[in-house]
Amino acid sequence: MARPWSSDVGLRREEAVMAVLPDSFKVALENIEPSDRDKENAPLAHQSVRNALLDAAELKGWGLDPVLIGSYKRNVSIRRVKDVDVFCRMNTIETSLTGQQVLDAFHSVLLSAFGESRSGSSRITRQARSIQVRFPEYDDLYVDAVPARPRADGYWEIPVKNSTEWQVTNPERLTALKTAMNDRLGDLYVPAVKLLRQARRTLLDTRPGGLFVEMCFYDACDNGRVDASNRSTMFVSGLEAVADYLTHKVASNKPIPDPTMPGRILEFRATDLQWNAARDRFAEASAKARAALAEDDLGKAAFAYREILGKGDEGEFVFPMPAEHDTDGGKKQSLASITPGDSHVPAGDRRFG
Amino acid sequence: MNAMDESLQAARERFIEGLLSRGFGQRDDDSFDGSFLIEGIAHEVQLRITSGFPFVPPAVYPGSSIPRSWHRELDGAMCLYPQTGREYLPWLRIDDLFATIREWLVRTRHGWTNDAPALDLERYFHPSTDQRMLIYDTLTAGTSVRIRLGRYLARVEGLGSAPRRKFKNRKRRRFACVLDIGEPPEPPTNWPELSAFLLEQERGRVERAMREGTIDYLLVLYCRGERAAVLGLECTVSASEVRLRRVPVAPNDDISRSLRSGRHYEALQRKSVLVVGAGAVGSQVCDALARAGVGAITVRDADVIRPGNLVRHLVDAGYVGHPKATAVRDFIRKRQPQSMVISVTTHLTDPDEAVRLLEHHDLVIDCTAEGVTSAMLGVAAKATGTHLISVCTQREGDVARVDIIPPLSGAPLDSTVDYGEDQVEVWEAGCGEPVSRTPYYAVMEAAALAARHAVGILAGSAITANGSIHDYR
Asked: Which of B141, B243, B240, B136 has its CA nearest to residue B182?
């Protein structure tokens, strides 16, 4: 948001110092954007699983209507897309069937459809709430097929691990919420989620996962606790928000509300060690990012952002250094450097030719 | 990224950081929004980094609340920087840029009072697709003129009433109305705004002629301060709307043609100069003095133009075989018909004549590089108490020198004669002496040096007392 600039208002030079680096953030986002190959593979894999389920005679009568959900559907995935979630809505399934029985049926259908890979290994894995299908032909992309039955309150239910019970969920609502938040924050929300997911991937080994970071950030945005001035302030204040949630999570197990189902909270799996490590690393990263934002030296600021965002799938740093700066943040010596006030014409001005 | 790309990218990044850190918001990769508080009112502006940055300034657009006035580009951007003074890329200093924008907003609010009288009304009109230069001699407001069209030029031929019907031979001939709008308080950008400066009767007459297609141009006389100018506009009618598009115009009168002659033009107009020797150096000296405005030039040489002369001589291949003196005379007159150049095609061998010539002309310039002629003129100058300029090159152009003989004061310059054995002699049939291989640029340098000294002496401010030597040995 532009502020009035005027010496009358008294905006002092020292108040205004900030390393925004918009071009570098733009390139960083391009570097973490799912590749064209990802974007080809994901729909193909999704369609394969969808067709297999819809064609299965034993599932006819369940009113199957699979749809994409998850980070890929919400357009917050980062490179490389490793898995795609298919939400298999069963609009007319019998209510007497348990979650495990449904998983058994899905397992049988998908095993029959996809069975083994050419190397003889199984492509099908039964998980707590879904059946996972591996696609070697699509760069080892995984599709998680999650069965879901409708509830009277408009939500859905998915199987519970090692239980006949069902668990309430409403994943499609999250896509709509993401879109609304992005509109509300001037198209800055989705890019910030991607950058935070990339930071999480660099900072943490496994859990908590990207969805945790995304939900912390969503809640912070919803409560006006992020600075939506530009991409860099969104990233920095987003890191701070996640760090803050982690601090409270470790200290007092403070929950994050589920925005898709008001009154309910979100639950994420991680060990105590993993929560503690996440708290410490996000705290350090957020402090580093805040210092970078206040930095006058663009090279030093970029060096800090680069460390936080780390490397991409191809082993290259995601965040580019600004022009005329080395990879260690130092300024390059260049005869061609264009500095305000420098003379590039020995004769000066007022020449005739 | 190569070094140039890095420099450009770094300049761009620094500039953008400067904008964002001062409260501007980024709309897209190259556009930024900001606001300036001027006398209690917030003025929104949009700034766009354009192709060519940082070597062109960013385009800054005021909000729609700012009415059109002076110092606006055609696309509405503020005109913030004149052409002079851009060498330091002043817009890269964000604080200075902001100060300039503030000043523009303040001055626009106050109607640009005490503005420098720039004669640039054409900048407020879109260009015509026909970019033939329209040249004119003198124009009188309230008249109609005939225009003859050429391939690159449109020339105002003289007074002529616009025909009653659309002229048939429109490929070669057009007509224009000459209007006078005085000193406009703000720039007109279309026919309604322009016609508002005319009397109603004239407005109606001209508009009728435009709609009937009997006139194709408007030649608009205007002034700013004490300066006057002409705006050339092509007029067409499309869907009942009169459309005006600017065409390039230029005055073709004697005063305009001599405007760039140099600051001593008026003083030189009253002077008479004799140039002895119309070879390579002498021909260029004559040309330089004619362009500078010397009122009467006499050029003397008994030789004729050979094909081998052309690489260094003033004249072109059409003058081979012509006497050098008349060739120079005719060549200069072709470009400057108003100049007085007299040719003499005989050798100067009579010492008495040398004395008379030195006494008659304001200045004699010896471009002969002939020992006897130069010696005779030098003695004659000393005898008559006058001074002459002698110019030559030596050592195949490694030396260019001008001598004032005798010096205005002090001693003459040292000799630069070079008896070096390593010079290769080149001969041409018909020439009794070796051909000098002095290159054209050395000839130009010597001639320019001579012209500079000559103008200094004629204008009463000699640049040195005894001449100059450019020695590259």
From this structure: B141
Interface residues of B toward A, Cβ cutoff 8 Å, are 1, 3-14, 16-17, 20-26, 29, 32-38, 42, 54, 84-89, 92-93, 95, 98, 102
Beta bridge partners of B47: B32, B60
Provide ipTM, 2 decimals.
0.78
The candidate with the shortest Cα–Cα distance to B396, out of B466, B312, B283, B317, is B312
Subunit contact B92:A338, Cβ cutoff 8 A: yes
Q: Give chain B's radius of gyration (CA, Å).
A: 30
pLDDT in tens, B140-152: 999 999 999 999 9
Residue A1 has pLDDT above 60, yes or no: no
Distance of CA B107 to the CA centre of its chain: 31
Residue B401, strand partner residues: B392, B469
**Helix A231-252 × helix A298-309 angle, to 10°:** 50
3-state DSSP assignment of residue B100: helix
Residues in B closer than 8 angstroms to A4, CB to CB, are 23, 34-37, 42
In the predicted structure, residue A12 carries a pLDDT above the cut 60: no
In the block, tokens 């300036």 appear at: B36
- pTM for this prediction: 0.81
pLDDT digits (tens, 9 = 90+) for A294-307: 999 999 999 999 99
- The 3-state DSSP class for residue B256 equals helix
Which candidate, A276, A219, A271, places its Cα nearest to that of A242? A219
Q: Which tokens hold the place of A253?
A: 């197990």
What number of CA atoms fall less than 13 Å from residue B194's CA on the CB side?
29
The answer to whether residues A21 and A318 touch, using CB atoms and an 8 Å cutoff, is no
Over residues A67-96, the mean pLDDT reads 92
B239/B243 Cα distance (integer angstroms)? 10
Question: How many C-beta atoms lie closer than 10 Å to residue A225's C-beta?
Answer: 14
